[in-house]
Amino acid sequence: MIISIIVAVASDNAIGKENNLLWHLSEDLKRFKSITKGHSIIMGRNTFYSLPNGALPLRRNIVVSRTISSIEGVECYDSLSAALDAVSGEEEVFVIGGGQLYTATLPLADRLYFTRVEQSFPDADTFFPDFDLTEWTPSYSLHSPQSEQNEYASTFTIYQRIPYFKDKDK
């Protein structure tokens, strides 16, 4: 199974404030939908509650929470390891947030779908964890300039973890 993280991150590693996104990037939202459609998505409780319409359609929605055991139409698990066990037979699964879940998943991840937003957000309250980019190799990259549909310029990159770095602590 490929464990993937999909995230949009500001230049200061900000990813949110008060359970909301900090920007509107139409192109990135469309990409998120096309990449995750038909797959399982794993998220924290706050990320789930930040979704405007609840569970995302055409995906298996999984929430990791120690305080919530049931949400209608969503699978709930009390740990990341339990959630990953539940999807172990799948080809690729996506962790979609939030900050704590990204921190827990990063050492396990095989792939990053990473959008770098070319802006900083000093009032943000949620951040993507620091990580060593030398452990990853880019396999695809696309720059999107600022436009009417995209509030800020951004660069979307797919990174593959170099296998040595995933297995070095085993």
Q: What brief labels describe this structure?
A:
21% helix; alpha/beta; 34% strand; globular; 10 strands; 170 residues; eight-stranded mixed sheet
Molecular structure report:
The protein is of the alpha/beta class and 170 residues long. Helix content is 21%, strand content 34%. It contains 5 helices and 10 strands. The strands form 2 sheets. Strands 5-4-3-6-1-7-10-9 form an 8-stranded mixed β-sheet, sandwiched between helices. Strand 3 (40-44), helix 2 and strand 4 form a beta-alpha-beta unit. The longest helix has 11 residues, at 26-36. The two termini are 17 Å apart. The model has no long low-confidence stretch (mean pLDDT 93).
The ordered H/E elements are EEHEHEEHEHEEEEH
User: What is the typical, i.e. mean, pLDDT?
Assistant: 93
Overall shape: it is globular
Q: How many alpha or pi helices? A: 5
- Which class best fits the helix and strand makeup? alpha/beta
Multimerization status: single chain
N- and C-termini, Cα separation: 17 Å
Short description:
With 170 residues, this protein is an alpha/beta fold. 21% of the residues lie in helices and 34% in strands.
Write the layout of secondary structure elements.
Elements: E1 2-10, E2 14-16, H1 26-36, E3 40-44, H2 45-50, E4 60-64, E5 75-77, H3 80-86, E6 92-97, H4 99-105, E7 111-117, E8 126-127, E9 136-144, E10 154-161, H5 163-167
Parallel strand pairs: 1-6, 1-7, 3-4, 3-6, 4-5
Antiparallel strand pairs: 2-8, 7-10, 9-10
